[in-house]
Structure formats: structure tokens, C-alpha cells
Amino acid sequence: MPSSERIARCFEACKQAGRPALVAYLTAGDPHPDRTVELALALERGGADVLELGVPFSDPIADGPVIQHASDRALHAGTTVARVLEIAKEIRARSAMPIILFSYMNPLLRYGFDRLCTEARAAGVDGCLFTDLSVEEADSTVAAMKKHGLDTVFLAAPTSTERRLKLVAEYSTGFVYVVSRTGVTGEQATVAGGVHELVSQLKALTPLPVAVGFGISRREHVEAIGGYADGVVVGSAFMRVVEEHGASADLAAQLESFTRGLSGRP
Amino acid sequence: MSTTTQTPDAGGHFGPYGGRYVPETLMAPLEELERAFHEAQQDEGFRAELKDLLANFAGRPTPLYEAKRLSQTLGGARIFIKREDLLHTGAHKINNCLGQILLARRMGKQRIIAETGAGQHGVATATVCALFGLECVVYMGEEDMRRQRLNVFRMRMLGARVVSVTSGSRTLKDAVSEAMRDWVTNVSSTHYLLGSALGSHPYPMMVREFHRCTGDEARAQFLERIGRLPDTIFACVGGGSNAIGVFTAFIGDAGVKLVGVEAGGRSGQLGEHAARFSGGSPGVLQGAYSYLLQNEDGQVSLTHSVSAGLDYALVGPEHAWLHDQGRAEYVSATDTAALAAAKTLARTEGIIPALESAHAVAEALRRAPGAKDEVYLINLSGRGDKDTDIYRENFPELDKDDAE
Hints:
The complex is a heterodimer. In chain A, 48% of the residues lie in helices and 14% in strands. By secondary structure, chain A is of the alpha/beta class. Chain A has a nine-stranded parallel beta sheet. The radius of gyration of chain A is 17 Å and the shape is globular. Chain B has two domains: 13-54 and 93-207, 3-Layer(aba) Sandwich (Rossmann fold), CATH 3.40.50.1100; 60-90 and 211-399, Rossmann fold (3-Layer(aba) Sandwich), CATH 3.40.50. Chain B has 16 helices and 14 strands. Chain B has helices at residues 27-42, 44-58, 68-74, 93-106, 120-132, 142-147, 149-157, 172-185, 203-211, 213-226, 241-247, 276-279, 317-325, 335-349, 355-367, 388-394; strands at 13-14, 17-21, 64-66, 78-83, 111-116, 135-141, 161-165, 190-192, 232-236, 257-265, 281-285, 287-292, 328-334, 375-380. Chain B has a six-stranded mixed beta sheet, with helices on both faces. Chain B has a four-stranded antiparallel beta sheet with strand order 1-2-12-11. Chain B has a four-stranded parallel beta sheet with strand order 7-6-5-8, with helices on both faces. The A-B interface holds A 57-62, 64, 68, 75, 80-81, 104-111, 131-134, 136-137, 154-161, 164, 168, 179, 182-184 and B 11, 19-29, 31, 167-168, 173, 177, 180-181, 184-188, 281-287, 289, 292, 294, 296-300.
């Protein structure tokens, strides 16, 4: 099966089940690269539908403190791009959950972008999302990803103009990721207003599923956004669990139980 | 060699370098800024107001000074110094800050944020915010705040809030990241007054345009004074704003050598310097593609320089392009060479340079003895008052009471 279909089918299955897809972000390598596979599987058991596997980067300008610290810990633990690809492969061997590589551009450019795409595809990765890649800079990257059958997920933001939303929709495959508010990643008590409208605007521009992320950390957020979006993305809330229980043997159980609370699944 | 085009392409690329590598949230604000900048450039009122501020507030034109004693001492090139250190606030940074604050006001932004390394850009930003009554927040690495205490105080006296950045290397790179996080969060009310020819389009182009007055003046001053252009121009390169400011007017003059001087730091080992051209490779950091100090896995390397203003992992993208085309040459001067050059300039000309500028001086001193009949220009981007503590640490023999 071409990997791009894995994401499409997942969103379709969630739609049939009458619920939003839960897209779970996990910084690969935190607290240690040897534990990431176990944590990814715990997320899946807890009800995550799609995994965003984060490549740690030294200068994550779009991330708040929780994910910044997770990146620092992962880098200190020796996580490399090559190791992240091995982790993806190990997860794929044990799970059918779609995997999206989530990264800043520099580590991948350094690795060699075409080599990255070849190896990511072989490892069972389904798509990529790059926080600091604007559509304006994306032609060669998108061509490489398409050549290797990887979905190209781009971000839409509350500041995006109509023209830019069209571009984002045009460049995306798999799904479109809507950033719920201006700012960096991190948990919030409430979800910003205006997200519903942004999702509607995008839905008028593309048949792709639309997922909403940034600031989502509670079951009530998932329920509210699930009323109008096809997916919700949660990151910092998971990484906070990893931060708090990283040293503990039952980290995976803690993460699974937290995920179950968010997903509302049995 | 083909003449370098002076304008980046529509996407802000200088050859393959530059561009816009930022989260989508910042793309519309960057487009808005670019539009505002182009409109302002066409607006006679804007140009006149900026010109007046540069002349009557900042102190332009700055002198082109012939350093006769220094030249004599070295016994080679005839050395001229462009005195950007005589500008209000003590460095070239004020040129760009005046330009950007007028733009921010045009765009209706009430809040200004900036990053600073050595504090010269922070002081210039705090100054223009005071002048226009705008809120000012400056991000500065904890380590740089320690090294540049005097400038921290100056910013506070001018009414700015200085936020200590404790992540990463606690220097300029981390201050830029924090400023970008603030901008992405407060983008509707806030203008990010970026302090070098760095970051995403339109910043490298815009900052260059606000600093090109340096080179334009120097060119006219040389023609008037000695009837010819200099043979070689030296400028230090951190982000590269003072260098691009002085280079721009001469890029079309193939006979004028352009020399950018990076921080050679303590040694050539990764992490011990900020020499991006000799120790780095192209990569993306903080919004732009350019030469970057990074490890084999694409993680951004720590840098070191005795001068906080040069202590940065990425170089401005236009410099990367000038480098690849061979139009400018990039070398580095070590901490030791820069410190020695500062002392030489102080002793021969009565000018204490900023440590950043001392790197440019060091390279000119190294070459001058063998360059008879040549004319040199050193862009002295800033004055050394802010570095007094570092000079004292490094010249302990000067800090003792005279015995006799």
C-alpha cells in the first residue's frame, strides 16, 4: 500500500467511527532513544490514531518550553536522524498506525534530503511536516517527498491570508494542519476562538482532512474541536507526561492512561 | 566575474541563500513588512524623515578619518577609518533602528522586540523606542548580559525591559530564538526589530538598505578626498550588517577588494570560534539558509568569541552569496589578535574600538605592512566603551596603579 493511503484511510476510518483522529506528537529520543518505540505503542494503545515522530533540533523556534526541553533531553541522550529512522522502522514493525516525521529543516538537509526520503519510506514513514518550511521554499522538498510516496503536510495559521491558505491546501497531501493560535507549541486552558472559522475556510478549499493543533491538552478540547475538525493534534501534554515520569519504569503506562483520558476510548 | 545583483529575488534569495524558512504564522507578517518597506522607500516623506533623523539625531555623515600614525607605524598601506563609532549610541546599529522604527510606526505597531548580543543593537533599539514612545522588550542571553553589563544598564535607563535568555548557549543565537517565539505569539501588535542582515526576507535586504549609507558616504568621501576609491575594505562580520552596509556601494567596483572578518575565537575547533566560512556549511537557522556552524547531525554548534556581537552560528545570506561568487573574501581573526589590534589602535590613534570592530582592524594590521601604495578602509562599526570590562580582564597590567 502506498504510504500516503495509510493516512487517508486512517482519517476515513475515524470519520466512519464518528470521531476525530487523535494525532499524537512524540519527541523521538526523550528520555532515551531506546524507549521511544515503547512510548509510541503506549500512545496507540491509549487511542492515538496517527503518530507525529519529532526529530529533536537544537533551535526549535516554533516550540514552547516543554518541547524545547524534550528536544534537549533527546539530543543529550544521543538521538540522531539515523536513530529516529530506526525508531520509525521498529514502530512500523509492530504497528499499522500512520507515522509522520515532524522536523525542522536543518537536520534533514544535513542528512541529505533525498536520502532521508528514501530511508524514511523504507522505514514505513507515511509523511513529513516541517515546522520552518514555508510553501515558498518547498518545491524541491515536496518533489522529493512525492517521488518517494511520502505525504506532505503543511501548516495553516490564524495569520494566513486567503491566498496563503490556498497555497497551503495546494501543497498539502494527507491532511492539513491548522495551528489554533499565534504562538509556540504548549498547553492552554482554552482553545483560541476563530479556529472553527479557519477550519471552515480550509474545508472550502480542499477535500483533505483538517486537523487542529497547538494548545490542546484536555478531553474537552478534543470533544469541542472534534465537532468540526477531522483531527486533533496533541504534543506538549504528552511530552509533559514524559518529562514528569521519564525516570520511572511505568512511564509507558502513565502515557497510555493519559492518552486514554484524552481520546475517551475504552 | 559577473557583477553581483544588488537585489535579492522576489522570494529574498541571494543565489541559493536567504529565503523564508519560518513557521506559517510569520509568513503573512513578513509579507506585510516587505510591502510596508517597499512603500516607505517610495515615500518621499519617509525618506526625508529618516534622512533628518540620521543627520540630526544619529550624527551622519560620519567622518572618514585618515589614520596617519597607524599607517606610519605599519609602514605599508595608507589606512582610512570610517567612524561609525561616532554615531549616537556608539555603533552603526542606530542606522537600521531608525529606519525600522519609522516602518513600525507606519504599520501601527505599538510594541517593539529585539535581540541583542553585545548590547549595541539593544541600546539602539531602546533609544529609538524612547524617541518614539513605544514599548520595548530586548532579549539577551544570560552570558551576554554578564559580559555586557554596561549596555544592559543603558537599555534599562532608556526604558526597555531586558529579558534574560537562559536556554542553549545563553548568547545571541538563543536571544534570536526567544525573540522569534515572542514575535510569533504577539505578531499583531509587535514589530520584531531584527538587528542584523539576517533572518527571513525582507530582513537581510531591508537591513542592508538601512545601512548602505555607510558605504555611500565613504565612496563619496574617498572620491572627494583622494580622487580614487580604496583598494581594500575591511569590516567585521557577525550577522554582517556593518559589513554589508559598507560593501554595498563598492560591489560594482571590481577593483575594490572586500574583506569580511569573522571571529576566529580561541581555536579552529568547532565550538571555539564563529568562523562560518571556514568552519561551517550551508544550512537553515532562524529563518534563513546560509553558512552555518553545525555538527555532523545538523544540530547547530555552539560558538565562541571574545566579542559577543560576533558570537553567532549563521552568517547573513548576502555574505554567503558574495563569498560563493568570490566577490568578497572572508577571513577570521582570533580573540588574541582582536585584543592586540584594539590596543594598537588605541595607542596610535587615540581610538578605542569595539571588540567586534577590532577584528577588522586586526586583519588590516596583518596585511598593511606588505601593502605599500595601497589604500585601506576599515569600517569601525562601534566604539569600545561597552567592552571596557573585557579589556580590563585581558589587560590586567593596565589595571594596576602606576608605581612611580
